[in-house]
Amino acid sequence: MVPAAERRVCGLRFDRLLRALVALGCEVRQGKGSEVNVYRRGGRIARVGHHHGNRALSPRHVRVVLDLLDLPVADLLAALA
Length: 81
Hints:
Mean pLDDT: 85
Oligomer: single chain
Number of helices: 4
């Protein structure tokens, strides 16, 4: 069983999430319109809407992006520290 601290994700600002994903080896590209595509080798493409400025993403949205990219929460938390 995974400890509760490793399963919890906090809400993040858009720019901070992208910086952490780049630090984890993800590629960030401009998508169609105001979307941003995040790609990780071995994972799928996660499309994140960037319709407004540096908006806050909910913990659920951050978790969906991590699941699409096959990234563990512990890696994201380590990249944010």
